Prior knowledge:
The protein is mainly alpha-helical. It has one domain (6-123). The protein is built from six helices and no strands.
Amino acid sequence: MFKTTLPAKTAVAQIVDQYRQQHGPSMQPATLRQFARSLSEVLQLSGRRISHQSIKNWGDRRYLPDVFIMLQIANEANHDWRRDFALDILAAVLPESYEPVTEIGREAIKAQAKNQSAKITQFN
C-alpha cells in the first residue's frame, strides 16, 4: 500500500482559502501577497519569510507547507489567527500528531476523510 499526500494537499488548500477569505481587507479575500506578508510578520525575528508563490502553491495543491515553519508560526503567534492557521495546517499534514483548533480546520479534515473514504469504497 502506498501513502499519498493528495488528501493533505486538498485539506491544506481548503484551509488556506478559508483563512484568506476571512483575513482580507474590507470583506475581500486577502491577496496572495497580503496573506504571505501577514504570515511572514511572525517569522521576522528568525529572518524567514513565506512568499506569495508558496501561498499559491499550497492553494493549488502543488506542495505542502514546511512543517517547521508552521511550528514556528504556531509558537510565535500567541493568541492570534496565524497560530490557529498554523495548527490547522499541522493537523492536516500530520493528523496523527495534531488536531485542528478551529472549525475551518475541522471542516477541511472532515472533507479530507470523507473524500478518502469515498475513494477507498470506489476501488473496493
